[in-house]
Amino acid sequence: MVEVLQFDLGAKRRAHIVLAAGGTGGHLFPAQALAEVLVARGFIVHLMSDERARSLGGRFPAIDIHAIAAATLTLSRPWRLPGQLLQLVAGFMQARKLLKAIAPAVVVGFGGYPSVPPLMAAAGAGIPVVLHEQNAVMGRANRFLTRRAQAVATSFPDVAGLAGAKARVVFTGNPVRQVVIDVRDVPYSAAAADEEFRLLVFGGSQGARFFSEFVPSAIAELALAVRRHLKITQQCRPEDLERATAVYAGLKVEAELAAFFIDLPQRMAAAHLVIARAGASTVAEIAAIGRPAIFVPLPHAIDNDQLLNAESFARAGAGWVQREGEAKADAFAALITRLRYGDADLAAAARAARALGRPDAAGRLADVVMETAGLAGKQAGPIGTSRT
Fold this sequence. Notes:
By secondary structure, this protein is an alpha/beta fold. 40% of the residues lie in helices and 17% in strands.
């Protein structure tokens, strides 16, 4: 059964909505996905983040990107706390002034310390607050803000750190960008033994160095028969490109290396196997596209969020988890070899990954945002969102 949620078109055209997010892709990508839906529904969207968000330029569909002062609280270095708290206070003052001028119907937070000043200012001004948690465990900023929110949307059915939350908790999934949805229908086709096997490797700013060093060493352990048909696409830090390129050339492995791939979703869709970190957006995009993955979670991550994300994916039969501290080149090579010739295993994992995907997560989150802001109405209109 399909339920179509309609909105009051008059209120919709007038409403401004503020999104607040940390400056990393894990926070900004789901915010961008929600913004795409909100703009399509006719709302005016603003983004509040730190200076890093300015690099998005025209890719983020917001009428304006407001850089807000913020700082991560490093409790392990207490001498830095006074300066960090002053930054957050400065950000709060900036956000309060901006919110007064914008007069948004609702403010939506996606975690990260840059989201704290806008959400604190919104709560203080009586503006409805919605939080979205991307990971399988609540982040520190979102845990701090939960009691000020009217609703908390989650990417996983079960999220650690939400016990006792008084806000309405709704499982929406993690919103993925339209460029991801656009390749969702590319079918997965396993490679025969004599066909090209496409391996995609990426790790983000905090993972590229490990992958640039470890993955080539694992590929070196592969039998020549496996390497002969291997094609690697790998993200590397600029300073690692020359060395990694030389290793693959010495192994006679076809490899395309770059510091950044603007078309990463298309490359995911073309891959037979993905090796990646397990940030929330990475997991959500791989699931939405439906590709098997070996996750190597970032070690020492706060609250082990990446490990929990990866384990949730693996429990569904969609992939495999390798801990960085326990990873050995020969064992990793053995796993790649088994999967390379395990057509049925890879195809089953691809189906399981696709089943985990929530391509409608942005629409579901938009519904929660609008309901919380009181913008959902009974009046029929041409714009709505379908739920299954």
